[in-house]
Design a protein that fits this description.
The chain has 913 residues and is of the alpha/beta class. It contains 28 helices and 31 strands. It folds into five domains: 280 residues, no CATH class; 137 residues, Transcription Regulator spoIIAA; 130 residues, Transcription Regulator spoIIAA; 103 residues, 2-Layer Sandwich (Alpha-Beta Plaits), CATH 3.30.70; 109 residues, Alpha-Beta Plaits, CATH 3.30.70. Helices cover 29% and strands 19% of the residues. Helix 17 packs across helix 18.
Length: 913
């Protein structure tokens, strides 16, 4: 296996933003020995690490696949521009974070199709991995490229680049793919070896029924060898085409090369049909029983802060509220709710395995979970002693009640998010998001009266049948919230309003509608912006060009794939980042390919028009979707079938496939009693301990704030009784030494922590050391007075560093190190301009540098430098050495802090450095 070592990355990581994105080594990562693995899969997220590590489905698949014996799942993300530039210059291929293996040497690469705006990133990642971007150009030695997620419900746009798509829930299907690939690799049966693997007891014929039937709901269970796709391969027929053909037998798998697109003379799509007889004519989505497994209970915990840095628990899958614009709600039916006790168990295990201080109850509509109030109450009371909060995503107003607000009131007040989507009751009826106007206003009053000061509203702009009256409704709701906010919160009230342009999506009742033009969107948004009181409101408008491009791509056909490739050739990537979107280059790509983008976005569809996704069966009847379109034009509501009876969507067979709601059993699942409030003074710290630790290896690439996060996580996982600050957003009472510059290692870091109970220093070190992390060692612990002792930062006077670099560097730059060092020592003062991130400052380095010595051994220059930590004279030691020597060392020098010295007034009570 060709791997990329940390040493090979060392010269480039100091040159990029957030190098922690590229080092791996996080808590709970799984690295399997190569001699114990026969199938490797790279879970590829086509966006930056910060986003991908916040995606819950990614974590579920990672744990599930790694539970399979002989199978290793590793992770890879899209590198940011700065890292990509360095990788290409250094000829470093795209690699997985766990083993640093080049992605081109992996057996399976599985992309998440979360968003159409990531598609150019997929092409870029394939290119960085030296994998042919077009599936027709790959040979037997190339990885199998698969993709799943919501984007797989219209796969044609990416069909030239993806070998196979997973349509529907991926847990069960991924296991089947891996088993088939294992058979293909070994050319012989592996049934005996796989008896211990988790699998599914569900033999299904590969022939798709001509008449719609309920889709079986799969569960992870004991193995069953009767699946036809798990028969042995013919030893004489093991080429790539044979593998792909075998994959088509797995329910939910679509292999585009076996299907042809036929068009009418006018260019309209006529049909998508198989080009051979032994593949199904339609691909029916798969359902997975989310209650049959705990999902992610030991997720990888990033060492750096990411977008959603908390323990996420999927409390239910699927949504039947029926919002007519919402693709996710349509394609994930039916509803499958976890049992409340299972959720509580997952929370307890997850907190113990991660150290997180927040639990997020995840679903498309968490407030609609059947037992949301009792569940929230039980979690809050059960986790209160650990200072752990519970959060819900954006709330549907009709599912919100006062009791739930009371429960949320007991925890940290980060703000409440509501998504009314439209400004008037009429338009909300059109989109089937009926919200009583007065109830909405009453809900806002309730939330504000409970102490919340920040609210967020989500609205869509450009919905079908929208008028100026509907836009005025957004303004009226906003003004009403401002009045209530000022009454309860005064000047401290803040309202954030998000305006997102409407994007018609496949498999929804609005798939027939056109998208408004760019000028129409601009006029609508300006109408709202110009009439809202901006003193208390922050309006965040989604990028119109991005929404326009999404509207083009979301309903694209196979022909549009050429434009995606051309856009990538023109430099397009990270199109979902407004600072990266190059809409003019996309327009050039469409023109170069002879494609009219308005054909895909700005025209109404006829009822019987063939769609590029008609061969992808989401289980929703087309007649149902058309009927919902008619109902929308009549502003006629469709009730939630999970509570009001069947709505005729054709998903359920009411036997195996049906809504599964959590039901509290008699006498079970009651929240624990409210914990007693702490008595005055009972939470004051009784002990203050000073700890020494190392920050070596990959940890040198995480920031000071991220290192503080890592330490807090470790303390939480070991149940050390930390003292906390007061208020709703309580934080551990910890104090660290002055920050290390990013890229510096340290053999001597110090922190002070205050404890609520006495703990021996030996026990503390043992408990902290039980949580392994490469580069972190706890080396010493000693007590200091709880009160009266100067703060840690005030107690330190100097820090010592070792800086190493190759002697060839000085020769290349024409520098005589000995002469430069002598000149510095002989000078009475040494003025230098130090360039900083925020400002440039002039220092006398004779005041900043307390000692400096340099020697050279075996071609390596070793510098030992001691600098003052007094704020007015402190200088980054590497920058100081550069000024003294007249050299540039960034990216070629290795810097390590080796010691910290206390002032005479502060007795460390332990040897230093």
């Amino acid at each position: 296996m060709n791997s990329v070592s940390l040493q090979r990355l060392a010269p480039i990581l100091p040159l990029v933003d957030k190098p922690a994105r590229y080092i791996g080594g996080e808590f709970n990562t799984i690295l399997k020995s190569p001699d114990q693995v026969d199938v490797r899969i790279a879970l590829a997220f086509p966006d930056v690490y910060d986003i991908g590590m916040s995606y819950h489905g990614f974590k579920v698949l990672y744990e599930l696949i790694n539970e399979m014996p002989g199978v290793a799942a590793e992770r890879v993300f899209a590198p940011w521009d700065d890292m990509e530039k360095q990788m290409r210059q250094a000829e470093i291929p795209l690699y997985t974070l766990e083993s640093k293996t080049s992605v081109c040497e992996i057996d399976i690469v599985g992309f998440t199709l979360q968003h159409e705006m990531n598609y150019t990133n997929i092409l870029n990642m394939l290119d960085l991995a030296s994998i042919p971007q077009f599936s027709c150009k790959r040979n037997d030695s190339d990885p199998l490229i698969i993709a799943g997620g919501h984007g797989a419900f219209n796969p044609e746009l990416m069909s030239d680049f993806i070998d196979a798509f997973v349509v529907g829930d991926g847990e069960w299907v991924f296991q089947q793919i891996i088993r088939v690939v294992r058979l293909w690799k070994k050319h012989e049966s592996q049934m005996e070896d796989s008896k211990s693997e988790a699998d599914v007891k569900d033999p299904i014929s590969s022939d798709k029924p001509k008449k719609r039937q309920g889709v079986p709901t799969h569960k992870l269970d004991t193995p069953d060898q009767s699946q036809p796709w798990l028969r042995n391969f013919d030893a004489q027929a093991t080429d790539r085409e044979t593998l792909l053909l075998r994959l088509t037998e797995i329910p939910g798998i679509y292999v585009p090369r076996f299907y042809d697109c036929k068009h009418n003379d006018d260019g309209m799509l006529r049909s998508i049909v198989p080009n051979r007889d032994d593949v199904p004519s339609t691909i029916q989505k798969t359902n997975f029983d989310v209650t049959s497994t705990a999902g992610s209970i030991r997720p990888v915990v990033p060492l750096m802060r990411v977008v959603h840095d908390r323990l996420a628990i999927e409390i239910k899958r699927g949504c039947t509220v029926g919002c007519r614009f919402c693709q996710a709600g349509m394609i994930t039916r039916p509803v499958r709710e976890r049992d409340p006790q299972q959720i509580i168990d997952i929370a307890q295990q997850g907190i113990a395995n991660t150290g997180y201080d927040e639990v997020s109850l995840l679903s498309l509509s968490s407030a609609d979970y059947s037992e949301v109030l009792e569940l929230t109450r039980a979690l809050r009371r059960g986790l209160a002693h650990q200072n752990i909060s519970v959060s819900l995503p954006s709330l549907r107003i009709n599912a919100f009640d006062v009791d739930l607000a009371e429960e949320m009131n007991q925890m940290r007040k980060a703000g409440f998010t509501f998504a009314p989507e439209a400004g008037t009751a009429r338009l909300r009826a059109v989109i089937n998001k009926s919200v009583d106007e007065q109830r909405f206003r009453d809900t806002i009053e309730t939330v504000l009266s409970k102490g919340w000061r920040t609210l967020k509203f989500y609205f869509m702009i450009g919905l079908p049948t929208e008028t100026d009256e509907d836009l005025q409704g957004i303004i009226d709701l906003t003004e009403a919230a401002i009045q209530s906010g000022r009454r309860y919160c005064g000047k401290n009230f803040q309202l954030n309003v998000s305006l997102s342009p409407f994007v018609p999506k496949p498999h929804t009742p609005f798939q027939w509608h056109k998208q408004p033009t760019r000028s129409e969107f601009e006029d609508k948004i300006k109408y709202v912006e110009s009439r809202v009181n901006r003193r208390f409101v922050t309006i965040r408008r989604h990028n119109i060009e991005e929404s326009m491009l999404e509207g083009i791509l979301s309903r694209g056909d196979r022909r549009l794939g050429r434009a995606v490739f051309r856009a990538w050739e023109l430099g397009c990537k990270f199109d979902n980042w407004h600072e990266h979107l190059q809409f003019d280059r996309w327009q050039q790509a469409f023109a170069d390919c002879g494609i009219d983008p308005e054909f895909y976005s700005s025209r109404e569809r006829e009822e019987n028009e063939t769609f590029p996704w008609d061969h992808i069966d989401s289980s929703l009847g087309r007649d149902f979707l058309w009927g919902e379109k008619i109902h929308s034009e009549q502003a006629h509501p469709t009730k939630d079938c999970s509570r009001n009876g069947c709505a005729g969507c054709e998903v359920c067979d009411f036997k195996e496939v049906k809504n599964l709601l959590a039901q509290r059993k008699s006498g079970e699942f009651y929240a624990p009693p409210e914990p007693p409030p702490p008595t005055k003074g009972s939470r004051d710290p009784v002990q203050r301990i000073r700890l020494a630790f190392t920050k070596l290896e990959g940890l040198r690439y995480i920031s000071h704030l991220d290192m503080a996060k890592v330490v807090r996580l470790i303390f939480r996982r070991t149940d050390i009784p930390m003292a906390f600050t007061q208020g709703f957003n309580r934080q551990p009472k910890m104090h660290f030494t002055p920050p290390l510059p990013l890229g510096f290692a340290s053999r001597y870091e110090i922190l002070d922590v205050c404890l609520l109970e006495k703990v021996s220093t030996e026990d503390l070190l043992t408990r902290l050391s039980s949580i392994p992390l490469d580069g972190l060692s706890w080396t010493a612990a000693w007590e200091v007075p709880v009160h009266g002792e100067p703060s840690l930062s005030a107690s330190l006077s100097t820090a010592t560093y070792e800086i190493e670099f190759g002697g060839q560097v000085s020769s290349d730059q024409g520098v005589d190190i000995t002469a430069q060092l002598k000149a510095f020592h002989e000078a009475e003062s040494f003025e230098a301009l130090i360039f900083g991130h925020k400002k440039n400052t002039r220092h006398d380095l004779k005041q900043s540098i307390k000692s400096l010595s340099i020697n050279q051994v075996d071609g390596i220059v070793h510098a030992t430098i001691q600098v003052s930590l007094i704020e007015t004279v402190y200088v980054n030691p590497l920058l100081a050495l550069e000024k003294v020597l007249g050299m540039t060392l960034g990216g070629v020098a290795s810097t390590t802090r080796t010691g910290l010295e206390f002032t005479q007034k502060a007795d460390p009570a332990t040897p230093l450095g």
